[in-house]
């Protein structure tokens, strides 16, 4: 199973490498419109960035993944807090059961207490 995982990851890596080599031409990204840049006294050259096409695609995919992971983390907060509450409650009940068993054994003969603990 581990080798299948490595083969799939290798195929994905190879596909990404082929895509990067095929898209090496530079593209210009405008970080803001020229009108908006003019309001702040910036020239179009100051708000543009030239990058290879594959870098733009990889950055967009990475940013999308990051936003998706953060969205899910925030969305699942309710479930994580509920699980934490249930875990604390279970620990509290386990301590209470252990305390009650100890109280039960105090009034018994030692042999009966040992037999009860073994079962």
From TrEMBL:
The chain crosses the membrane at residues 48-71. It holds the Pfam family LapA_dom. Residues 83-110 form a coiled coil. Residues 49-97 form the Lipopolysaccharide assembly protein A domain. Keywords: Cell membrane, Coiled coil, Membrane, Transmembrane, Transmembrane helix. The keyword Plastid does not apply. InterPro entries: LapA_dom (IPR010445). One of its GO terms (cellular component) is plasma membrane. This is LapA family protein.
């Amino acid at each position: 199973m581990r080798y299948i995982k490595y083969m799939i990851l290798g195929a994905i890596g190879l596909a990404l490498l082929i895509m990067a080599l095929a898209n090496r031409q530079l593209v210009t990204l405008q970080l803001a419109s020229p009108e908006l840049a003019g309001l702040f006294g910036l020239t179009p050259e100051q708000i543009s960035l030239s990058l290879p096409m594959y870098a733009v695609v990889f950055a967009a995919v990475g940013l999308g993944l990051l936003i998706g992971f953060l969205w899910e983390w925030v969305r699942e907060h309710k479930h994580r807090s509920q699980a934490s509450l249930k875990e604390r409650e279970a620990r509290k009940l386990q301590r209470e059961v252990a305390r009650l068993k100890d109280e039960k054994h105090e009034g018994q003969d030692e042999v009966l207490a040992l037999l009860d603990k073994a079962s």
